[in-house]
Structure formats: C-alpha cells, structure tokens
Model the fold of this input.
Amino acid sequence: MSVVLLVDDEPQMQGLVAMCLEGSGATVVQAANLEEALTAARLERPSVILLDIGLGQEDGLHILPSLRADPALAGVPVLMFSVHDSMRQDALDQGAAGFVTKPFRLEVLREAVKEHLP
Done:
C-alpha cells in the first residue's frame, strides 16, 4: 500500500487533501510541522511526501536538506505545494520532485502524487 506523508499546518487543508488522496487508494499520514514530519517520515516510510512551504513560523523548504541527508528518506520524492507559485523554482532547485500551486484542482493533486507512487 502506498503511504503519502502530508505536511500542512491547516486542519481544513489536511482534511481536504487526505480525503482526496485516500479516495485514490493511498494511506495518508498527517503532520502539522517540521518536527512531526521528520518523525513520521522515519516511522512510516512514505512513498511520497507532500510538503507545504508555508508552515506557520516554519518554512517547508528548510526540511528538504534534512530529508535528503537521511539515508532512509533520501530517495522519497517530495512534492511541494504553496499559494505562492513564485516559490516553484526555489522548491525544484532545492530538490523537490514537483510543485502544486494552491488552490489546486483535486485531479491535478491526485495526478501529481500518483506520478511518484510505486
């Protein structure tokens, strides 16, 4: 079974994304901040990580080096998402496998995630 780690600090967005992806057959594990994300990623061994750039006071781009440095997580594709499309190139330059702009259409999100599932 495919596991998607969703990292977003907004409960409504977590619920919407989880419902969308679980409807496609994925198991969604949720984290609200970077510390929870790293812990969950190491425990759950996700197939894909969907990471919001804006996490309250934290910046999702700062977690990418930690994920890439961890041998158990280095190969896990990370898809970034944000309301700021201007962050797309920064995310890709720092190692993101893809970028989805909020607000997004559910089918666009599903396809972006599905592309990276085993």
